[in-house]
């Protein structure tokens, strides 16, 4: 499964790394692609192992907003 999160506030490569790392730490997340320019974060995950709410929370814990 893939979802796209719309994340605001990421402006540099460190931001990108923080968001990517936080998502990849979640059990069930398989791959994360961040587009800094658009704020779109594509997450590939295993259904049933992780929820969209958990992904949003992980990103928000890093200090970024998720639409
Ligand atoms: Mo550099 Mo990204 O301070 O917030 S980590 S812009």
Automatic annotation (TrEMBL):
Superkingdom of the organism of origin: Bacteria
Chief localization: cytoplasm
Keyword Secreted among record annotations: no
CC per GO annotation: cytoplasm
InterPro entries, per the entry: CopZ, Heavy-metal-associated_CS, HMA_Cu_ion-bd, HMA_dom, HMA_dom_sf
This protein's UniProt keywords: Chaperone, Copper, Cytoplasm, Metal-binding
Name of the protein: Copper chaperone CopZ
Organism, as annotated: Salirhabdus euzebyi
């Amino acid at each position: 499964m893939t979802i796209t999160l719309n994340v605001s506030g990421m402006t540099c490569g460190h931001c990108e790394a923080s968001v990517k790392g936080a998502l990849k730490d979640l059990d069930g997340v398989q791959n994360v692609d961040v587009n800094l320019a658009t704020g779109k974060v594509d997450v590939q995950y295993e259904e049933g192992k992780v929820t969209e709410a958990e992904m949003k929370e992980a990103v928000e814990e890093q200090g970024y907003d998720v639409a």
